[in-house]
Amino acid sequence: MALLTAAALASGPGARASADSGDPDTGRSAGGASAVLDGLKTYGQAVLHTRDGAVRQIPAGLYEMRVDGGGMLQTYGVGVAGYAQPQARYTESGWNGSLLAGNAEAGRIRWVLEHSYPQHNDLAGLAKQAGAGALTVESAAAGTQVAIWRLADGAQVEAADPEAERLADYLLREAARLPEPPASLDLEPGRVSGTVTGPAGSRLGPVTVRTGAQSVTVTPDAAAVAMGVRVVDAEGRAVGSAANGTPLYFEVPAGTPDGTASVIVQGSTKVPVGRVFTSGIPAEAQIVAGSSDAAAAATATAVWPRPAAGAATGTVGTLAGSAELPPADAAASQSPDSPDGERLATSGSSAATPVIASLAVGLVVLGGMVVLLLRKRPLEGEEEAAGSEGAEG
User: Fold this and answer.
1) Best CA proximity match to 285, nearest among 172, 137, 120, 152
2) What distance in Å separates the CA atoms of residue 388 and residue 383, rounded to the nearest whole number?
């Protein structure tokens, strides 16, 4: 097995910057390394008993991955059902973004990785601990992979080599639960939306650097530069590099039109053992067993929206002798619970409308009474005349 070789970080504007890819780690931004799978490199054989009763012999062991920008990884497969395809592209992920989501055994898988090959590369000592005979790199890799498969999805699988099988059994007996490892490089917070927000003329943030690298570069993107947005520390000093725990802010000049800008953070560090890499096929997820110094990147984005428009002013209409009221004032003059208030708010009427309506009704009634009185007098005269004619007859 060839040793992992360290590689320098490829820096500059063309280096990868990770965008939010939907990794569901709560409250964390998308960040870390991306890589291409070279293929299965160090392996033995295992026997898989499928749920339909079939028995298959499958390869079991270590893969290698080439990290974008420099670096190498050694990984084991997470899902037993999928054989990862060489040249497939992978991105660093949290456990919740993989087959390990909700798996109570995920922490035990990390223990297996920390205490077996290649992290524990004293094969004679490992064989003694496992109560096995001589282990080769192939049998050690096969036994470790079998243990991971059993923990990851309860697969009925055993190593074809008896010594590898003894190693797998030992790892399962001894495995304790360890916490999920951190990302190689990340910015937090940000997983919910990947952004920080606020008005122009203020400092937006902070986003905090989380990394195992001694130092990372901090670069505003082209949009930030064009709009004069600076990335600064808590004292307002421009930041070009940072370390783990450094808070970063976006300083947006007052009067800047609404928009967005990003900061790109890049560095070189080992990817923690137990970190997952995913492709578009869940069954082909990989979990890190060893890492050289590898290039990693993360981004955070700031958004400053246009200020909310103020309420429009104008008149609803006027009545003789009344003052003009803006719509907001007219509505405010009525109780929210008042039916009259609701009618006024929707019809545009003023408070004088009920008075005018009452006067109009009174005039209509008075006019009706006058008409009746005028009509009544002729009728009474006609009745008297008719009575006298009757008497004469």
Assistant:
1) 152
2) 9
